[in-house]
Structures are given as structure tokens and as C-alpha cells.
């Protein structure tokens, strides 16, 4: 894990960001790849997300660009969470992942330190496991014009996560694309708001995240 923001005080919580990738690739992942660079403003939004002064922000560094048959980014995320635990002790973690990184974040939510996940245009193929999400807070942001990952599959994932006892909701970004470039300022503003809401310790989620989790279906935005 690469630490992008370390608070002056001892961390009381952490936000860990996961970028996208490819379905299959053993090419080494690099910080200058477009998928990683696209998450820089998301990282800035995460840093600005809360008025708390004790939030550490980090980024998972993958070994490979691809998911591959062995869910490589999930293993990298688990190692990053273990590294975080060794460095700062047990703190509640919110994961923020885009596309392939969204799928990895949702899988890695099995770690007991993970309290919430914000999945941005995630890759949620049919049958993706949800049984480990009980008691977790899950919010999906997905563009209704995404042609790379399917917002319908994200909505189905959220429905199944709710049946598995997660607090889960989906916000459907009107005219939103997969790269989060169309209406980019709105994506970043929503990311900042939802991360702040997921970081709060209160059992009831408020704001946009709370509205999404309370809605019967996808929340248009």
C-alpha cells in the first residue's frame, strides 16, 4: 500500500483506494497507467471528504494489471490491509474502488477491518459472492451510460447484498460514463460526500449514502 495522506495525529480510520485494470493481463501495474492516474482526483476527494483530522488515505499498488483467474487484485488488497494493520493497528477502513478495483474492494470487504465500500462503476458479474457482506455498508455509484461495466448488474448485486444483511444502495449517475469523465465534478463531489458518510460511526447512514440505502431501487442522481 502506498500512503497518500498521513494525518499528524495517530490514525483513527483509513480510506484505501483501488484503481481499475483489465480482465486478463500479467503486465506489471504502474502508477502512471491511466487507470491509476484517473484515481488521483478521487484520492483528493477522499482526503477532503471529512472534517476528521485522523484519517489516513492510501492506495493499493497491484502486482499485475489484470484480474486474471486468481483474483490477483483481491490478494493485493488483502496484503495492503495487513500492512495497514501492522503499521497503525486496528482502525476502521473504507474502501473506494473503480471498475476492477470496485470488484476487488467488494471482495476484500470480507476483512473485519472493512466497515464500508464505495464502488465506482464496479465490475459485478452475475454470481459475484455477497455472503460476506453482512453488517457492511455498501454504496455503488454507476453511470447510466456506462458501456464497459453494466449498471444493471450493479443493481442486482446491491439487491443480493441487501438480502445478505448489508446496508446497501446504488446511485445511478445520469449521463455518467465508465471513466467518470462526463460530469466528473459531480462524481468527485458525490465520492467526497459518500466517503464522509461511510466514515461516520453512527449506525444510521445519512445524506446521499443513506438515501441510496433506503431507496427501493437505484437512486437517480
Automatic annotation (TrEMBL):
GO terms for molecular function: hydrolase activity. It comes from the Bacteria. The keyword Oxidoreductase does not apply. Residues 81-183 form the KANL3/Tex30 alpha/beta hydrolase-like domain. InterPro entries: AB_hydrolase_fold, KANL3/Tex30_Abhydrolase. SUPFAM superfamilies: alpha/beta-Hydrolases. Keywords: Hydrolase. This is Alpha/beta fold hydrolase. It comes from Streptomyces asoensis.
Amino acid at each position: 500500500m502506498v500512503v497518500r495522506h498521513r494525518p499528524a495525529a495517530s490514525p483513527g480510520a483509513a480510506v484505501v483506494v483501488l484503481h481499475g485494470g483489465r480482465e486478463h493481463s500479467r503486465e506489471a501495474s504502474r502508477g502512471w497507467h491511466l487507470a491509476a492516474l484517473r484515481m488521483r482526483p478521487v484520492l483528493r476527494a477522499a482526503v477532503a471528504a471529512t472534517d476528521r483530522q485522523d484519517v489516513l488515505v492510501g492506495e493499493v499498488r497491484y502486482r499485475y494489471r489484470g484480474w486474471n483467474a486468481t483474483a490477483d487484485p483481491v490478494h493485493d488488497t488483502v496484503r495492503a490491509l495487513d500492512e495497514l494493520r501492522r503499521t497503525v493497528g486496528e482502525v476502521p477502513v473504507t474502501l473506494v474502488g473503480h471498475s476492477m478495483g470496485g470488484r476487488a474492494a467488494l471482495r476484500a470487504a470480507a476483512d473485519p477491518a472493512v466497515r464500508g465500500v464505495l464502488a465506482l462503476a464496479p465490475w459485478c458479474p452475475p454470481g459475484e459472492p455477497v455472503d460476506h457482506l453482512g453488517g457492511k455498508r455498501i454504496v455503488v455509484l454507476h453511470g447510466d451510460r456506462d458501456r464497459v461495466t453494466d449498471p444493471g448488474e450493479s443493481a442486482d448485486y446491491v439487491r443480493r447484498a441487501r438480502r445478505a444483511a448489508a446496508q446497501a444502495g446504488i446511485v445511478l449517475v445520469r449521463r455518467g460514463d465508465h471513466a467518470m469523465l462526463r460530469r466528473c465534478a459531480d462524481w468527485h463531489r458525490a465520492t467526497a460526500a459518500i466517503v464522509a458518510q461511510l466514515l461516520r460511526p453512527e449506525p444510521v447512514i445519512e445524506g446521499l449514502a443513506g438515501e441510496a440505502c433506503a431507496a427501493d431501487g437505484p437512486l437517480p442522481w
